[in-house]
Amino acid sequence: DHDDHGDHDDHDDHGDHGHVPYSSLPSAEDYPGTLLGDPETGDATLVISLLEGDTHLTDDTQPYLLVSPRTPYNRVPLADMALSATIDRDGEELATFDLEQTLDDEYDLHYGAETGLADTELEPGDTVTITVESPPQVSRHRGYETAFLEMPAVEVAVPEEVPE
């Protein structure tokens, strides 16, 4: 009996009344730019993409490094993390910089930075290492008591085709 819904006869658009709705991020392939990878660390997947310099997220023509942490199966965003990125070329560290948490209407919750912040242009073959400085601040409940607490750094390589 759904008397509390007034005169709504069609309930198809209401979903399942027994569950709280949650946000689901786009799949890795749905992000623009060059997908550098979607490695797993701990209990999370990190979608890592390099966006063209003319995105609304940058002040100039530098590429934007976007990292979208999420649960691997339902793509639930992981908020309130501290992430950093390190760029290596031929085994030499060129730059390390923090990624800023951003809530954006186009790319949803993600962490990012202009790669130019480190005065380093990414080149094919460069390695980008994403380090979790502090884990996401998620509610600890049954099944999640230890989730996301140990998240080793992940590495991805810049492919031969880099956005100009």
From TrEMBL:
Stretch list, region Disordered: 1-39
Domain of life of the native organism: Archaea
Domain DUF7350: 29-156
Signal peptide: none
Biological source species: Natronoglomus mannanivorans
Name the record gives this protein: DUF7350 domain-containing protein
InterPro entries assigned to the protein according to its UniProt record, in alphabetical order: DUF7350
Transmembrane stretches, start-end: none
Biased composition (Basic and acidic residues): 1-19
